[in-house]
Amino acid sequence: MADTIRIQMMDHFLIFIDEKKTDHLAAKSKKGAALIQYLILNEGAPVPNQRLLNALWDEEKSANPENALKTLVSRLRVLLNQIDPSLGACVVSDRGAYHWECIEGMTIDLYEIDAIFTRLSEPNVPASEQRKLYNMLLEKYEGDLLQHSEQNEWALAKATTLHNKYIAAVYAYIEMLKSKAQYADIVSVCRKALDVDSFDDRLHMELMSALIKINRTGEALVQYKHVVQLNYRYLGVQPSEDLQEFYKQIVSAGKTLDFNLESIRNELRESGERRGAFVCEYTVFKEIFNLQMRNLERLGATMFLAIIMISPYNDKEIDSMRQDNIMNGLMEILRKNLRKGDTITRFAPTIFALLLPTVNYNTGGMVLERIKRVFYRSYPNSNIVFNYRVGPLSSQGKPLDEPIPPAEA
């Protein structure tokens, strides 16, 4: 008999015997693994046979469902005893029901996490104990409940509740650390929590803010670009307005004030020596757009806006990695083949927006046609359609009459 048996319910379902992983149960009997999970979720309370049949067999039909359940339990006990001689006894028969009974030396992460939440909700918990509890929670909450297990629809409600409690606890821990100016710890907490929920905007902003506080603005900028890519690749949207505004804080924090005219001039000259068009984040693109619009109004000039979109032939889907490779390649083509005064941003996963202040009606379409030819030379067998629209803008930001018509490959 093992000294310790640890059952993991968070993220993956696993059984550890003396800290050695045994993961063959789910492979040998998916229904058996699901039965254990269901019984554990009921925390020792007897579960009537009919509920188990409804949960585990769902719409499957059996000539003798009660016998099917008995057979499953019998085989499951044999499999559990192969893992450890004491495990089979954990599946306990009641009259018309079954329940899970923990034995000595057994721990279940789900129960430990529930106990942490219960203690944290109590009044007057000392700060030192709270911190210990928060760190235990971060260690044990390896992912959402049964996230990678099959037949777990019945666990969704519990999983959602636990997730919400977890995120709320992380927020509270961050606030505690902020009150003590422990920003390096906030960085660790946010990174751990983002492994669980990578789309939580507040966690991203707390992480970037903490990085700025400890003078790691470069890492904050990398984190921002990571968020942008997450939103592009998986959601197909721009980051939230709050995150876009945060980009300005990162850039501002990375600038040190230096009132020496020569050093400022040298920095500006260095930036000016870069060749090709200016590539920027969407937030900066909007600022440049609005600044250009003011110039149009003051000078009565014209600026052209172009949109480039790539799409697969025959509307077939393109995998995200290949899409990113093509978009990154197109970005480099645009940067090298447009002028210094032009501005580029990735507006959406498959769309670039361009500001072309130096073109006119005749040259606007010619510029985009040249880009298209270079693109197809670079990707001759890509099966990608290169679409674009380009037209002038008025000082109110609206297209003027007679825009250049859309063009397709």
Task: Summarize this entry quickly.
By secondary structure, the protein is α+β, with helices and mostly antiparallel strands. The chain has helices at residues 24-28, 30-41, 49-57, 65-83, 109-120, 127-140, 156-179, 183-196, 201-213, 217-235, 241-253, 261-272, 282-299, 320-337, 361-378, and strands at residues 5-8, 14-17, 20-22, 47-48, 91-94, 97-100, 106-108, 278-279, 303-312, 343-348, 351-356, 384-393, 404-407. The protein is elongated.
Tell me what you see in this structure:
The chain is α+β, with helices and mostly antiparallel strands and 409 residues long. It has 15 helices and 13 strands. β10 and β11 form a beta hairpin. The chain folds into three domains: 5-108, Winged helix-like DNA-binding domain superfamily/Winged helix DNA-binding domain (Arc Repressor Mutant, subunit A, Orthogonal Bundle), CATH 1.10.10.10; 109-253, Alpha Horseshoe (Serine Threonine Protein Phosphatase 5, Tetratricopeptide repeat); 276-407, 2-Layer Sandwich (Alpha-Beta Plaits), CATH 3.30.70. The chain has helices at 24-28, 30-41, 49-57, 65-83, 109-120, 127-140, 156-179, 183-196, 201-213, 217-235, 241-253, 261-272, 282-299, 320-337, 361-378, and strands at residues 5-8, 14-17, 20-22, 47-48, 91-94, 97-100, 106-108, 278-279, 303-312, 343-348, 351-356, 384-393, 404-407. A six-stranded mixed beta sheet has the order 8-10-11-9-12-13, sandwiched between helices. It has a four-stranded mixed beta sheet with strand order 3-2-1-7. The chain has a three-stranded antiparallel beta sheet with strand order 4-6-5. It starts with a strand and ends with a strand.
